Amino acid sequence: MRSAALMASVCCSATLAAAFAACAATPVPAPVLFQVSEAGDEVTDVKAKLVWRRCVEGMTWDGATCAGTARLLDHSQAQSLAKSEFGSSKLPWRLPHVPELKRLIDSRQGHPPVDPLLFPRTPAQWHWSASTSVASSGAFNPYNYGNIAQGRTPSSVNQMDFLHGWAVNFSDGEARGEVLKRTPMVVRLVRGAR
């Protein structure tokens, strides 16, 4: 009796192990993170509910890739372009924020770290963002030796914030907030999905 129960237990374990092995060997489809539009010129980030232009400004989708040359714009020109695109297309195009741009960067892609099938010919350069103060250090401290040594005052700190903007480097994913707004850089517009 005992050997029959033991045999049934071994059989059951072997059957479960085989079933588990078969389950583990069955590939689970990866969740869809990005969807390309029917026209092919836009990519939707399904999770974030954002629609990206597939090509950076200055380049156009030709049905197979992004053709042309990327336009380099200063921060003011980039903001003006977004406003004019919003006005002409009646779609809420805008400059993306730093976390939104960083969603396009996938370190598994190598160099540049952007999926070349979704965003072909993406320049491995700095891209403008609309973020203003990603990580503020709080109130100005006049007793901080670093502030004194570098001649910072409350008004000069505010002036520096006015002169600098945030950008993301599409060669390595780094984000910086001390980029002079007059610097010409790449622009990729985004809008919310409907």
The structural domain count equals 1
Give the radius of gyration.
25 Å
Strand line-up across the major sheet: 1-2-3-9
Mean pLDDT over all positions: 80
Number of helices: 5
Helix content: 25-40%
Q: How many extended strands? A: 9
Identify low-pLDDT runs: 6-13, 134-140
> Major sheet: size, sense and barrel closure?
4 strands, antiparallel
N→C terminal distance = 67 Å
The first-level CATH class name: Alpha Beta
Tell me the strand percentage band. 15-25%
Structural class label: alpha+beta
CATH architecture title: Roll
CATH topology annotation: Mannose-Binding Protein A, Chain A
> What order do the helices and strands follow?
HEEEEEHHEHHEEE
The shape is globular
Describe the SSE topology.
Elements: H1 2-25, E1 34-36, E2 42-45, E3 50-53, E4 59-61, E5 66-68, H2 75-89, H3 98-102, E6 126-128, H4 145-149, H5 154-163, E7 164-169, E8 175-180, E9 190-192
Antiparallel strand pairs: 1-2, 2-3, 3-9, 4-5, 6-7, 7-8
Protein architecture, described:
The protein has 194 residues and is an alpha+beta fold. The chain is globular and about 40 Å long. About 8% of the residues have low confidence. It contains 5 helices and 9 strands, in the order H-E-E-E-E-E-H-H-E-H-H-E-E-E. The longest helix is centred in the N-terminal third of the chain and has 24 residues. A 4-stranded antiparallel sheet has the order 1-2-3-9, with no helix packed on it. The protein has a single domain, classed as Mannose-Binding Protein A, Chain A.
